[in-house]
Specification:
Number of strands of chain B: 5
CATH class of one domain in chain A: Alpha Beta
Distance between the termini of chain A: 56 Å
CATH superfamily of chain B: Dynein light chain 2a, cytoplasmic
Oligomer: heterodimer
Number of helices of chain B: 3
Strand order of the largest sheet of chain A: 2-1-5-4-3
Distance between the termini of chain B: 7 Å
Largest interface: A-B, 6 and 13 residues
Largest sheet of chain B: 5 strands, antiparallel
Number of helices of chain A: 3
Order of helices and strands of chain B: HEEHEEEH
Helix content of chain B: 25-40%
CATH topology of chain B: Beta-Lactamase
CATH superfamily of one domain in chain A: Dynein light chain 2a, cytoplasmic
Structural class of chain B: alpha+beta
Strand content of chain B: 25-35%
Helix content of chain A: 25-40%
Number of strands of chain A: 5
Largest sheet of chain A: 5 strands, antiparallel
Structural class of chain A: alpha+beta
Strand content of chain A: 15-25%
CATH architecture of one domain in chain A: 2-Layer Sandwich
CATH topology of one domain in chain A: Beta-Lactamase
Chain lengths: 161, 123
């Protein structure tokens, strides 16, 4: 008998024993009730406050874009998806190590930074910075912006689609 | 990092010292802090003064002076703030930051002692 046969096999689930499908929360993306002008104001304030910020992307934890203020270059939809990927990794680390909720994650490359901040359980703020950005200052200011964005998002009823 | 802890401790032993930090001005992050008070967050001071150092370095470059900063003195109403970029090879991109009380410190002595600390600091 080969060793492969000794390995445990997954039994085919019987009909009726399947867990109920998970009900996912309504996506933030495309919700017309969001206060877009106020959100846009917060994002541009952050960009003006810290020299070296190329732009900000507000996305859901589902990876869908809500809004952004990127001028050129990167695709905001891609960045919203990347931010959710970084959030997913951070959340798993938090779960495995018992360190609680995801707060912030930064990637530094040869030519710049991408920082992702948790706004609340459903939304993320991604900030793209040049290599010369004062990243300590970004880490001081961005959580405050994230908290204000959380307040703006809190008062919104979920989209009905 | 024993060397860094000793350097920061020595900086806090300077008469009138309120807080000291070793800061990376490429990112604004601190490598170590000592002292500080409830109201004074040295990480905020480090991030802010990173912009001071960068502005001065850029000015020197724009003026084509081909020189470097030995130290920067900022005089407040009640405090002196001393910024001293590290000049040795291992300390490239770092500066020492020292806050001293104006009434309790001897500025010339503080500056001299900070130079000695910087020279002995090997990372």
């Amino acid at each position: 008998m080969s060793r492969v046969d000794d390995l445990p096999r997954r039994a085919r689930p019987q009909p009726g024993t399947l867990p109920p499908p998970q009900a996912l929360p309504q996506s933030l993306a495309g919700n017309p009730a969001l206060p877009y002008p106020a959100i846009g104001q917060e994002l541009s304030t952050l960009r003006l406050q810290i020299p070296g910020v190329h732009g900000c992307v507000l996305g859901g934890v589902d990876g869908l874009l809500v809004t952004h203020n990127l001028q050129n270059g990167a695709d905001p939809d891609d960045l919203a998806a990347l931010a959710a990927t970084m959030y997913g990794l951070g959340r798993q680390v938090g779960l495995r190590l018992g360190q609680g909720d995801f707060q912030q994650s930064t990637v530094r490359n040869a030519g710049g930074y991408l920082s992702v901040y948790a706004i609340n359980g459903h939304a993320l703020l991604a900030v793209i910075g040049t290599d010369s950005i004062n990243v300590a200052r970004l880490h001081l200011h961005a959580p405050t912006t994230a908290a204000r964005l959380a307040e703006l998002l809190d008062g919104v009823s979920p989209a009905t689609s | 990092m024993g060397n860094l802890d000793i350097a920061l401790k020595n900086a806090m032993d300077i008469d009138g010292a309120i807080g000291a930090a070793l800061v990376d001005y490429t990112s604004g992050m601190t490598l170590g802090v000592a002292g500080g008070t409830g109201e004074i967050d040295l990480t905020v001071a480090a991030a802010g003064n990173t912009d001071v150092v960068r502005a001065k370095l850029r000015t020197i470059e724009m003026l084509r002076l081909d020189d470097e900063i030995e130290d920067i003195l900022i005089t407040l109403g009640s405090q002196y703030h001393l910024i001293r970029p590290l000049s040795n090879r291992t300390g490239k991109g770092l500066f020492l930051y020292l806050m001293v009380s104006k009434s309790r410190a001897n500025l010339a002595m503080a500056r001299h002692q900070l130079r000695a600390i910087e020279e002995s600091l090997e990372l």
